[in-house]
Structures are given as C-alpha cells and as structure tokens.
Amino acid sequence: MAHDHNSYSQAYDKENYDRVVFKLPKGKRTLLKQEAEIRDIRDSQGKLSVSRMIVLALEKQYGLDLHTKE
Q1: Cα gap 33→40, rounded to integer Å
Q2: Mean pLDDT of 56-68
Q3: Which of 14, 23, 49, 59 has the fewest CB atoms inside 10 Å of its own CB, making it the most exposed?
C-alpha cells in the first residue's frame, strides 16, 4: 500500500489548524518574504516562514497566545 504524504499532511492540517487568508497589494508579499529572511524566521522544519513571522507579530502586538490549542 502506497503512503500518500500529501494527503496525510492535508488531512492533518485540516484537523489541527485554522486557515486565515488576507490580501496585500501586489509586490508586498515579496517584502514580507525578505523581512522573514532578514529576521531569519523559520518554521519547525527550518524553512523560512512568513506565516510564523505574522503569528509572532500578532502575539507580541496583542498579547495573544496563538501557539497552544484550545
């Protein structure tokens, strides 16, 4: 039986994470990627992560705890 890593990952993410989407003016995504690289913000797998940078910023600015599951 073949193991489908992508299907497993998608199912896990759907079960364990909420997805938040927002829009930026064209070109600003690149700015966020550059900022994550400058600050060396990485996810748990060591990849540069704009998402993690945004979560860290929200936690710091608003005193939220976004890392623990309810």
Answers
A1: 10
A2: 94
A3: 23
End-to-end CA distance of the chain: 35
54's tokens = 């945004």
Locate 51 and state its tokens.
């998402």
pLDDT, mean over the chain: 92
User: Tokens in use for 18?
Assistant: 């909420």
Task: Kindly state the helix (H) or strand (E) to which residue 35 belongs, with its residue range.
Answer: helix 28-38
Predicted TM-score (pTM) of the model is 0.80
Tokens, residue 21: 């989407």
- SS3 label, residue 46: coil
Q: How far apart are CA 67 and CA 47, in angstroms?
A: 18
Instruction: Tell me: pLDDT of 11 over 80.
Output: yes
Map tokens 């550059």 to a residue: 34
